[in-house]
Amino acid sequence: MLPRSDPLGRPVFRRRRATASAPIGALLLVVSLAGGGCTPSAPPTTDGSSVPPASDPLVVYCSHDQLFSEPILARFTRKTGIAVRVRHDTEATKSLGLVNRLIREKSSRVCDVFWNNQVLGTTDLLTHDLLAEYKGSGWRRIPEVFKDPDGRWCGFAARLRVWIVNTEKLPATVESVERAVTARDLSRMAVARPLFGTTLTHYCLLWHADNGRTLRAQHVDRRRRGLIEVPGNATVKNLVARGTCDLGWTDTDDFFVGLDDGHPVGMLPIRLADGRTICMPNSVSIVKGTQRLSAARRLVDFLLSAETELALARSPSRQVPLGEIDEESLPAEVRRLRPWVADGAHLEELRTSRAACLAWLRTEYAR
């Protein structure tokens, strides 16, 4: 039997989707080589804080999906013997919830390493002086555009914002998408509410272009024409994949879930007015003041390694490596995305725009 073809004309062999072994939420998960047990209490220090015993696990706040992050952290523990305790965020608030938690905990820090599923939000922590400088082997292999020059955060394994199109309703072409977006009725287009996650990053980039003037006008106009707004990108994918909507905004990882499930979906990169794409790396940072600095640095170097980027590229999410890597080792679908990543807009400039855009959005959605 010949392999089926995807909506873009490429042969696709069916992939078996992994299933999460536990619900995603604010659950504390311990990734360890050994069994559980009680951890001895830490002795107090002169400033009233506690120095953790050497046996204490490394505490990681992680907004990347547990389905994809848990195997990576388990591999780190197997290689190093360093136990990791992970706090995941909820689907509703995504990385914003963990960013706010880190700010609240500034005076009594719990987290050692922050693995964010994007950059925006991580850069907010710079204002609060929460991130330690570290320029290790992982930081050195990542291009300048995707990292803080002082080593306080570093990007890796990117996703992109894309149009997802139901190819039984529309061709997956720039022309057909433009016609659909300019039509009088937008009730066949879906987007996630932009208060959280990657849609917030998307909105902040649009805001940044002209201090929100064009974005605010477009936002009002699209809602007036019946734009469908839903809780998250996965819901957008579901609506388009099932044909309830013709097209929408989502991320590449959600698109590939729809494709792997056999739905008639195609994608195009979302491009800004200047032609740039919206590339969203994961980011990793060490929380300043950690008592597990050596272990934290080892985890950062591991996450920024070619090994981890390749593992995420080969996962169902098909995330795109940012550092140097053997192109032939990448799935063809990921190689196709590499030029889109190279066109990505700079996100580190958005700190001021993010605050202004988020304040406006909270007013809009409070009505």
Short description:
The chain is built from 13 helices and 13 strands. It has helices spanning 66-80, 94-104, 124-127, 137-141, 174-182, 197-210, 213-224, 233-241, 252-260, 293-303, 306-314, 332-342, 351-365; strands at 4-5, 11-12, 28-31, 58-62, 84-88, 113-116, 131-132, 154-166, 189-192, 228-230, 247-251, 265-269, 279-287. Strands 3, 4, 5, 6, 7, 8, 9, 10, 11, 12 and 13 form an eleven-stranded mixed sheet that branches. The chain has a two-stranded antiparallel ribbon with strand order 1-2.
Helix content: 25-40%
Cα-based radius of gyration, to the nearest Å: 21 Å
Predict the CATH topology of the largest domain.
Answer: D-Maltodextrin-Binding Protein, domain 2
CATH homolog superfamily of the largest domain: Periplasmic binding protein-like II
> What percentage of amino acids are in beta strands?
15-25%
SSE blueprint and pairings:
Elements: E1 4-5, E2 11-12, E3 28-31, E4 58-62, H1 66-80, E5 84-88, H2 94-104, E6 113-116, H3 124-127, E7 131-132, H4 137-141, E8 154-166, H5 174-182, E9 189-192, H6 197-210, H7 213-224, E10 228-230, H8 233-241, E11 247-251, H9 252-260, E12 265-269, E13 279-287, H10 293-303, H11 306-314, H12 332-342, H13 351-365
